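ingest -> validate -> predict -> emit
validate: passed (alphabet ok, no gaps, 302 aa)
predict: started
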Amino acid sequence: MYDIEAVYEASSVSHAVALLQSHPGARVIAGGSDVLIKAREGRLAGATLVSIHGVDELRGVRVAEDGALRIGALTSFSHVEADPLIRRHIAVLGEAAGTVGGPQIRNIGTIGGNVCNGVTSADTASTLVAYEAVMEYAGPRGTRLVPIAEHYVAAGKTALAPDEILTAIIIPKESYAETAGQYIKYAMREALDIATIGCSANVRLSAGTGEGPIIERLRLAYGVAGPVPMRAFGAEAAANGKAADAETVEQAARAVLDDIKPRTSWRASAAFRSHVAVELARRAITEAIARAERTAGAGGVL
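emit:
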């Protein structure tokens, strides 16, 4: 049995916000893959829950008028993975969603819940950070947009106020247009495991001067390389504007060591995570470049 004081079912975003105002300290529950586990373990004893599971307006992916991809917070991992807009514009996010847990978890778990629990190991988080996602919050003071870099405040903590909910994740067109990416999750098992470390890269290439393509823009981000999902700015700077070749990739991968701050845990030592982070960067950037070149060969930017 779950030790729960009460469960309230929200019928709309405004209703959910009103319920949170009326019940200070209440927890939001969407798919339940995180909250119910905590409740079963006794970590939410006597909790009041506000369920947003029935707010269907928070589901689905669409392209906004300005070209941004708008992903509803209640969109399940399975739907993110299968969505045609995601596959067309930001396939790496669908691939990252496909690494979460097993099929049952992916069917009930939501992308919004994955970023609202605040953990650095969330599989979609590093890709969203790499694509400079913007979080849309709704609360009694209206709607506010928060860059994902500001969404993560500390380990396990986000910028969401107690009376706010996440309604959407927005990927600006400038962040995803003409890019290709790769996410690599290193874990102790191939499925049903959280990441020991995860790395997401995406690149935009330009034609260069005849010696091969140039990395016009690299974005590289990690999970479990610090207390929150984080960009590797030094590694990006080491590659941006340079030839899309093995030497540039190596320089970027090595620069990662100055960006990340892994810790030692029972899963892995900080030294091991640092070693793996370099290798993951090398592989993720290389594959992102290869994907971008294949896209160009099929009529893309080059």
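The chain has a mean pLDDT of 94.
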